[in-house]
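To: structure desk
From: M.T.
Subject: fold request, one chain
Message: Could you run this one when you get a chance? Sequence is below, nothing fancy, just the single chain.
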Amino acid sequence: MGWKAAEKLIRHWKVLRGDNVMIIRGKDKGETGIIKRVIRSQNRVIVEGKNLVKKHIKQGQGHEGGIFTVEAPLHASNVQVVDPVTGRPCKVGVKYLEDGTKVRVARGTGASGSIIPRPEILKIRTTPRPTVAGPKDTPMDLVLEKTYDAKTGKGMPEL
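Reply: Done. Structure tokens follow.
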């Protein structure tokens, strides 16, 4: 990717994996679906069951060949998040609640201004966190050892 293309990458993404979106341009215009995958390096998203194309795959060693129907990526500007109250496409804004939590809200003409919930699928990690310490992990007794005392200044390196 050249530097010109990198300049045009979306910095602050409004759509997330698992969001309910409506396609606003293209052959599936007006249809809604769930975002299956977000490709940030290309500013594209894949919507479940939408923008289907035929792909010709040559037979190889270990897989069958033939013509398959696959979901092609859509540009992120061609989809909009669906307002959970009105069911119409809307822009996404950010708002901070009284307790300081950051939430997404529906914005734009005809939008309800309601909170757009974070998709549940984002709470599930694709790779689970390791429960057993590996060879490169620092042992817990070394982590919990107190090496600096703020009151006496003990443990400060001599400069």
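Reply (cont.): Residues 3-7 form the longest helix (5 residues). Let me know if you need anything else for the meeting.
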